[in-house]
């Protein structure tokens, strides 16, 4: 069964008819040809398809397109404003926080998500004070929160400082 | 050009997450610097086009129907029902392969589409093209294949038995490498031995196999594909498609990791067949599950080793038997046997040696190349046995290895002279001297325990262990292979600026080859702007992106082409200036005299012309080994690395936390220090993965865990902090003194982790990956 929806992606509205079983990832990649989110497993195991839904990170392969509604979908590409790379983009490049790069748009979206989580004071399994108003993104916090994004090239040692630099600049890390 | 470090020196080192500390200066963007990746911004935003991102407005989707049986006879294939599915544009079987229905890296023994028999679960049987991938999958499900299931050979230890069914005629032996050196009857006062088993590892690159085949007006095809070696793909495709190379053009699409798993063909011929049949562009893209069936894996291995030594630990002899499960088709099994046999005793001086290495056919998934290529499996055995020897003679693990460690000027077990640095003892000393992580605080939070919050104890069963391993690996292709790369370099003025364009077919898979190509051009030509031409078969072969060889061999070709271009430019300048060529240099877009004075501009010399030169580079020839003795100069270069692993093991729950994984490696010359450290991080992670978590479980020929839920690869939480120490002992035989980097870390990290777990739990642990029940003995 097809359903008429409008996906708001990276600031643009895209009306389209989708089979109701279509994932957000497939709608983005195969219908709208927005290929910034990658398909690594299609089962929510690898994180390569991570996008932001109203600022919260999700595995887009586990979200049905018809459930997105009016939420704003942001891909890594959409984090760049007027072709100016996002601070996370620059930091990942400068820290060489990737090799093949396939997982990287997902890593970047995930990192953008955890910056917002820290600002909002969302605790993780390693947060010392779960009642605090904000969370400091220590290395442990970054690793814990980024652990859903696999990197087979194992650029992990560079991902942590790439995220940490931006966290510091945004005031969620000393 | 913006560089990150901007300087370099005789050695680089880094602690986790910090930039390499360097001591001398170098020019930004050139050799020794770590300039930013030219494809970096595209990769982080996601605009970079991986093979799975390709699109053509008229394209249809191709899918593969695969065998559900490890071994069966095909009695018949009925495609009529599949053809009736609306949206289907083609259904192909073996009858539709126009050329020879065979491919293979070293032997063309694998059908493009199965004929009469299927020999492993997942073997391609038929293809479907349709206007939607789901339509194609449903149509494929309607293909009726009548199978007669046959007895399967699934235990490689019995593959050579007289009564074992033959996977291929004449039998199930792919290669037996026999190596004999020294006195075969020698005895020793101390004898240690063991049996080791290594499970099947998957490359698990995150970007599954994908390609887009576009039919061309000349009747040929253009294939855009993620691969490691465009030209060896092209050769195999020409055979199967029955077309000459000029009609089979390959273009490198973005590669989402490789690690050996893209050396063999995947979608290549299939997508091309469908494109040629339908007249439409055809995209194929495997799911994660299909990817587990769509490429070769690391060979599982069974190893029996014995060392004889003097009472002071000095090795007298070694005897080894290595069995590798090659699976259903040959792929690169023979070469993997070559490595396991010729390098399988590790970087040690051993005067008397007997090695027998076997690769066999079974009805298990085909195995072939993966990072470390035959040395990985053997290292688990020789390093475990070194620790046994240390115990037997009362030495510590570092000293026993140093006492036997190979040195420059030694001969290895094939009799080959080690004619450049072999710093085995030094590498071990470096990792032994690195600071150890602090002891675990007994009151530490639950999250610091092995298993983290999954740990149900208070840590009373947690024991720390430390383990060491050292290895060496051949760089480049061995045993007489004509291993070369081609580079075309063009220099011209564009918009008032000198621009060099470098064109090779050598695959960038994330290791940073294109950055290295730019660095070499800048260094040799003294220009800032270097364009990397898209990789394709319009230039000669760049050889394989494997065997840690591209910086060496393609780097050598780029250097040679640059030198040729520079020679032309300087000859022109010399003629117009009336000077000797030998008195001129090219730097900063200027022709410079002997004392550094600017004589003229590159713009004046070049004018409107472009200077373009193409060169091939070959490393020193290697040679076949003697079939009786295994003796010979089989390899061109050796690279050495050592690891020290520190683990906390909960010996009651069988859980392991790797606390530290420190390493030292000689890279000859760090062309790009950041990329070197990145390779060492990545390689170490994959070795650790094999030691602790990564295994394709195959029972009765069936893969039981083709998903990332059940096939585990290290996450950011699994990777411990790493101290990385890089030595730069230039190899005088290699361009710039480089030594291959990518593979050694994968070889020595796993055995170090295994040794650390053994030290903690006191059990022999003769199988990897180590499972909780091995640690607890339950």
TrEMBL record, chain A:
Gene3D superfamilies noted in UniProt: 3.10.20.30, [2Fe-2S]-binding domain (1.10.150.120)
Keyword Iron-sulfur attributed: yes
Recorded superkingdom: Bacteria
Span of domain 2Fe-2S ferredoxin-type: 3-79
Biological pathway: Alkaloid degradation; nicotine degradation
Molecular functions (GO terms): 2 iron, 2 sulfur cluster binding; metal ion binding; oxidoreductase activity, acting on the aldehyde or oxo group of donors
Record bears the keyword Iron-sulfur: yes
Record InterPro entries: 2Fe-2S-bd, 2Fe-2S-bd_dom_sf, 2Fe-2S_ferredoxin-like_sf, 2Fe-2S_ferredoxin-type, 2Fe2S_fd_BS, Aldehyde_Oxdr_Iron-Sulfur, Beta-grasp_dom_sf
Pfam families, per database record: Fer2, Fer2_2
Alphabetical UniProt keywords: 2Fe-2S, Iron, Iron-sulfur, Metal-binding, Oxidoreductase
PANTHER family in UniProt: OXIDOREDUCTASE WITH IRON-SULFUR SUBUNIT, OXIDOREDUCTASE, IRON-SULPHUR BINDING SUBUNIT-RELATED-RELATED
Protein name listed in UniProt: Xanthine dehydrogenase YagT iron-sulfur-binding subunit
Species of origin: Blastococcus haudaquaticus
TrEMBL record, chain B:
An example molecular function term from Gene Ontology annotations: oxidoreductase activity
Regions of compositional bias (Low complexity) in chain numbering: 17-30
InterPro entries (UniProt xref): Ald_Oxase/Xan_DH_a/b, Ald_Oxase/Xan_DH_a/b_sf, Ald_Oxase/xanthine_DH-like, AldOxase/xan_DH_MoCoBD1, AldOxase/xan_DH_MoCoBD2, AldOxase/xan_DH_Mopterin-bd_sf, Xanthine_dehydrogenase_dsu
Residue stretches in coiled coil: none
Domain Aldehyde oxidase/xanthine dehydrogenase a/b hammerhead stretches: 45-151
Region (Disordered): 1-38
NCBIfam families noted in UniProt: pucD (TIGR03196)
PANTHER family per record: XANTHINE DEHYDROGENASE (PTHR11908), XANTHINE DEHYDROGENASE SUBUNIT D-RELATED (PTHR11908:SF157)
Record protein name field: Xanthine dehydrogenase, molybdenum binding subunit apoprotein
Organism: Blastococcus haudaquaticus
């Amino acid at each position: 069964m097809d359903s008429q929806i409008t996906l708001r992606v990276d600031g643009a509205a895209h009306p389209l008819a989708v089979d109701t079983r279509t994932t957000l990832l497939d709608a983005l990649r195969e219908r709208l040809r927005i290929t910034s989110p990658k398909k690594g497993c299609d089962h929510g195991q690898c994180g390569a398809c991570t996008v932001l839904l109203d600022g919260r990170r999700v595995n887009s392969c586990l979200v049905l397109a018809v459930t997105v509604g009016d939420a704003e979908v942001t891909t890594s590409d959409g984090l760049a404003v007027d072709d100016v790379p996002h601070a996370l983009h620059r930091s990942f490049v400068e820290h060489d926080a990737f090799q093949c790069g396939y997982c990287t748009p997902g890593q970047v979206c995930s990192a953008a998500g955890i910056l917002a989580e820290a600002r909002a004071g969302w605790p993780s399994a390693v947060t010392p004070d779960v009642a605090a108003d904000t969370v400091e993104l220590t290395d442990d916090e970054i690793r814990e929160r980024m652990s859903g994004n696999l990197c087979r090239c194992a650029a992990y040692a560079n991902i942590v400082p790439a995220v940490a630099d931006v966290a510091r600049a945004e005031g969620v890390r000393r | 050009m913006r560089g990150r470090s901007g300087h370099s020196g005789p050695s680089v080192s880094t602690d986790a997450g910090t930039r390499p500390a360097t001591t001398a200066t170098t020019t930004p963007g050139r050799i020794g610097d770590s300039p930013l990746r030219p494809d970096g911004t595209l990769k982080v935003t996601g605009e970079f086009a991986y093979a799975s991102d390709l699109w053509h407005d008229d394209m249809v989707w191709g899918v593969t129907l695969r065998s559900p049986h490890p071994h069966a006879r095909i009695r018949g294939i009925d495609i009529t029902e599949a053809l009736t599915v609306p949206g289907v544009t083609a259904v192909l079987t073996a009858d539709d392969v126009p050329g020879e229905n065979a491919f293979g890296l070293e032997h063309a023994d694998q059908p493009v589409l199965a004929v009469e028999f299927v020999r492993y679960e997942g073997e391609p049987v038929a293809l479907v093209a349709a206007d939607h991938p789901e339509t194609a999958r449903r149509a494929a499900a309607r293909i009726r294949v009548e199978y007669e299931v046959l007895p399967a050979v699934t235990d490689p230890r019995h593959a050579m038995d007289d009564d074992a069914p033959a996977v291929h005629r004449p039998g199930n032996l792919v290669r037996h490498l026999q190596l004999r050196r020294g006195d075969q009857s020698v005895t020793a006062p101390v004898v240690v031995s063991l049996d080791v088993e290594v499970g099947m590892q998957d490359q698990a690159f995150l970007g599954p196999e994908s390609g887009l085949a576009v039919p061309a007006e000349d009747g040929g095809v253009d294939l855009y594909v993620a691969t490691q070696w465009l030209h060896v793909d092209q050769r195999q495709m020409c055979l199967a498609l029955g077309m000459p190379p000029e009609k089979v053009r390959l273009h490198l699409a973005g590669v989402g990791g490789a690690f050996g798993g893209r050396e063999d063909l995947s979608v290549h011929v299939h997508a091309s067949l469908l494109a040629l049949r339908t007249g439409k562009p055809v995209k194929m893209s495997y799911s994660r599950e299909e990817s587990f069936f769509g490429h070769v894996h690391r060979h599982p291995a069974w190893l029996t080793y014995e060392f004889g030594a003097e009472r002071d630990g000095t090795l007298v002899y070694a005897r080894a038997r290595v069995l590798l499960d090659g699976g259903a088709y040959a792929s690169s099994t023979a070469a993997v046997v070559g490595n396991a046999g010729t390098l399988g005793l590790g970087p040690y001086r051993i005067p008397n040696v007997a090695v027998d290495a076997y690769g066999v056919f079974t009805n298990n998934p085909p195995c072939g190349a993966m990072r470390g290529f035959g040395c990985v499996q053997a290292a688990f055995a020789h390093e475990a046995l070194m620790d046994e020897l240390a115990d037997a003679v009362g030495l510590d693990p570092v000293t026993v290895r140093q006492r036997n460690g190979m040195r420059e000027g030694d001969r290895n077990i094939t009799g080959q002279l080690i004619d450049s640095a072999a710093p085995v003892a030094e590498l071990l000393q470096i990792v032994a001297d690195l600071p150890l992580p602090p002891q675990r605080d007994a009151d530490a939070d639950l999250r610091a325990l092995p298993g983290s919050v999954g740990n149900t104890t208070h840590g009373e069963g947690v024991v720390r262990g430390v383990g060491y391993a050292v290895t060496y690996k051949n760089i480049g292709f061995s045993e007489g292979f004509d291993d070369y790369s081609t580079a075309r370099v063009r220099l011209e003025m564009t918009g008032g600026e000198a621009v060099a364009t470098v064109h090779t077919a050598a695959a960038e898979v994330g290791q940073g080859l294109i950055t290295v190509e730019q660095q070499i051009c800048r260094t040799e030509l003294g220009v800032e702007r270097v364009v990397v031409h898209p990789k394709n078969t319009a230039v000669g072969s760049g050889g394989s992106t494997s065997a840690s060889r591209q910086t060496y061999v393609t780097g050598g070709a780029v250097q040679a082409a640059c030198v040729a271009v520079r020679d032309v430019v300087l000859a022109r300048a010399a003629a117009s200036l009336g000077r000797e060529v030998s008195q001129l240099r090219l730097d900063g877009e200027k022709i410079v005299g002997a004392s550094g004075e600017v004589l003229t501009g590159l713009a004046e010399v070049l004018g409107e012309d472009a200077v373009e030169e193409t060169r091939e580079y070959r490393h020193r020839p290697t040679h076949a080994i003697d079939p009786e003795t295994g003796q010979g100069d089989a390899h061109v270069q050796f690279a050495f690395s050592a690891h020290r692993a520190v683990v906390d093991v909960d010996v009651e729950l069988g859980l392991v936390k790797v606390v530290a994984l420190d390493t030292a490696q000689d890279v000859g010359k760090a062309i790009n220090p950041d990329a070197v450290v990145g390779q060492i991080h990545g390689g170490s992670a994959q070795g650790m993965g094999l030691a602790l978590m990564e295994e394709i479980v195959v029972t009765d020929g069936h893969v039981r865990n083709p998903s990332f839920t059940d096939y585990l690869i290290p996450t950011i939480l699994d990777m411990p902090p790493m101290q990385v120490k890089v030595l730069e002992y230039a190899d005088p035989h290699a361009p710039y003194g480089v030594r291959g980097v990518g593979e050694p870390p994968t070889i020595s990290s796993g055995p170090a982790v295994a040794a650390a777990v053994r030290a903690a739990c006191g059990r022999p642990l003769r199988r990897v990956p180590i499972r909780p029940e091995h640690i607890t003995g339950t």
